[in-house]
Amino acid sequence: MSKLGRNTHLAAANRYEAVVRSASSQLRESYSAYRTAYDLARHYRDEIVPLRKVMAEENVLRYNGMLIGVFELLADSRDQVTSVMQAINAQQQFWLADAGLAASIIGKPMAMGATPVSTSTAGGSEGPGH
User: Fold this and answer.
1) Most exposed: 9, 93, 114, 125, by fewest CB within 10 Å?
2) How far is the C-alpha of 123 from the C-alpha of 80, rounded, in Å?
3) CA–CA distance from 47 to each of 39, 44, 104, 130 (Å)?
4) Chain segment 92-130, per-residue pLDDT in tens
5) Of 57, 130, 126, which is closest to residue 85 (Cα–Cα)?
6) pTM of the prediction?
7) CA dist., res. 30 & res. 22, Å (int)
8) Nearest to residue 94, comparing CAs of 125, 68, 116?
9) How does 8-27 read in b/e, with b if 16+ C-beta sit within 10 Å?
10) How far apart are CA 22 and CA 16, in angstroms?
């Protein structure tokens, strides 16, 4: 094999290794984004939204018993609406991450246009431990 042939072969092998590393990295990043979005959407669906619903029902009972006023009831309703909107946003991010992972698997990675999910609420009291 001539020196030119060896150089061409070596350059092709280096390009191949670079493409394999890049594809593996893109797949790991896509899966990580997918898994994070899935966990967050599931957390909102299974824990946050049902908990907010129970809290709203309890506050209606407290309002009916004249233990809280109408403004506290309205503030709680606003917080419940905010948590539902965050759950919808988390589900949207999950489906965007799912599409990104599917694109990476078939070899056509797309730019991740997903926006991060905002975890702040109007009341500021929402969090993973609440």
Assistant:
1) 125
2) 10
3) 11, 6, 31, 10
4) 999 999 999 999 999 876 665 545 545 444 444 444 444
5) 126
6) 0.73
7) 12
8) 116
9) eeeeeeeeeeeeeeeeeebe
10) 10
